[in-house]
Each structure stands twice: as structure tokens, then as C-alpha cells.
Amino acid sequence: MAQPNKVTYPLPANSEINISCEANAAYLQRVTVTIPGDATSPYSFEGVGEPGDMTLVNRVDAIELASSDTERPAIFTFEFDSSGTGTQFQPSPTVLQPYVKATPWGSLITIASEDGVDADNNDSIVFINTAIIAQLDGAAKASGMWERGEEKGVRKLKV
Predict the structure, then answer these.
(1) How far is residue 122's CA from residue 80's CA, in Å, rounded to a whole number?
(2) Which InterPro entries does the entry link to (predicted)?
């Protein structure tokens, strides 16, 4: 189901976050990620091709966010430029609802857009990977979720 051009997705607490994007379009694509309270936000990914890398201005292809004690919103804005100049961006007319694949150690979330040309709903794709970080305690040990890795303090589940 389509959503408005700006999609807000809650980034989970106690998780390391990796955000990257991919283009699958002939038109130049841009995804802007705004995280209120993040001093380096907004982040703007741009790219073109099928598939095409979408990178930040400094050519980095992902955002790495440290864990936070609280959930925080991330606002994703999808645009395209049919001229290819990077000066005539317009809102992508279709943005799909986030798809969430939850796992015991985190989640993979994808959000895709369509610029209106071929209706394949994959012109820009955002990938949000989360890795749960938690205090190792008796309940976590008992669940079997924390069998791998060291048993010292705070750590990420290793798979």
C-alpha cells in the first residue's frame, strides 16, 4: 500500500543501526534521512542505475548509528530528478509501507519508492539493519539467545 512521500519509521532502542540505499532506476534518485536530535542529520543519499549505488556527498554508502536508550524517529523523504542534473528533484509519487523482517538478534526493514515511470515499486530502496544490543542477564542466557560470544557486560549477539 502506498504512503505519503515522507515516511517516519521508529528506530528501535538498544540497537546499532545501519542505513543504506539502492537505486533501480534510469532517473537520478535521492533519499533524505532526517533524525531529530542527530547533529549530523539530515543525510542525503543519491544514485542512479539498475542497480545503482546510492551514496552520501562524501561517497560513503551507509549511515552507522550508535545504540540509543530510547526509540527515535527517522524520517525518509524520497525524490527523483528526470533531468539527471541533480537540480530538479521532485517527490516520488509512490512510497510503499515499510517491510519488516524481525529476527531474534534484530531486524531488516526495507522501504521502497516508485518514480512513476515503470510501476515496479523499486526505484529507491532503503535498507535499515538493526542489531540488538542488550545487557547479558539470566533471562537472556536462559532464552538461549546469547549462546555465542563473550559473557562480559554489554555485547551484540553474534550469528
Answers:
(1) 12
(2) Ca_lectin_sf
Please tell me the distance from the alpha carbon of residue 24 to that of residue 16, in angstroms, as a whole number: 27
- pTM surpassing 0.85? no
Q: Is the dihedral of CA 37, 38, 39, 41 positive or negative?
A: negative
What are 9's strand-pairing partners? 74
H helix runs in the chain, sequence order: 138-143
**Domain extents in the chain:** 2-134
pLDDT (tens digit, 9 = 90+) per residue, 36-80? 999 999 999 999 998 899 999 999 999 999 899 899 999 999 999
Q: How far apart are CA 117 and CA 95, in angstroms?
A: 14
CA 126 to CA 110: how far, in whole Å? 5
Sequence-distant (≥ 6) Cβ neighbours of residue 3 within 8 angstroms: 95, 96, 97
User: Which three-class secondary structure state does DSSP give residue 110?
Assistant: strand
Q: Reduced to 3 states, what is the DSSP secondary structure of residue 139? A: helix
Pairing verdict, β 2-3 and 6-11: unpaired
